[in-house]
Amino acid sequence: MPPPPASAAPADPRVQLEHCLRSIALLREQNSRLIRDNQELRDLCCFLDDDRQKGKRLAREWQKFGRYTAKVMRQEVSWKNGVATIETASIITQYSRAYFLSFY
Questions:
Q1: For residues 68 and 29, what is the distance between their CA atoms, to the nearest angstrom?
Q2: CA–CA separation, 29 vs 35, rounded Å?
Q3: CA angle 23-7-13, nearest 5°?
Q4: pLDDT tens, position by position, for the chain (104 residues)?
């Protein structure tokens, strides 16, 4: 590479300095943009984490509700089976009574 001309030598440090300053300005701008993007991503992560926690809480509540509903349904079926058994026993008793009274 040939040496630069004598007239360009004094301007060369200034050109280099301007180039460095432009590079610094661009890097600062890029850094501030990255900082903003990083903050947005942090905010989004916090929002999504809160939403995930709410979803977990809601799932637990629905699970609890499902267990409670199943328990109530089992009790209802048990109660209805008990009532049916009592009704059957009552009908059998009535028929037995009627049968035995028919002998008197």
A1: 58
A2: 10
A3: 25
A4: 455 555 544 568 999 999 999 999 999 999 999 999 999 999 999 999 999 999 999 999 999 999 999 999 988 888 888 888 888 888 888 888 877 777 77
Buried b / exposed e over 46-72, threshold 16 CB at 10 Å, is eeeeeeeeeeeeeeeeeeeeeeeeeee
Q: What's the CA angle centered on 74, arms 94 and 85, to 5 degrees?
A: 10
Q: Where are the alpha helices (DSSP H) in the chain?
A: 11-101
**For the chain, how long is the longest CA-to-CA vector?**
145
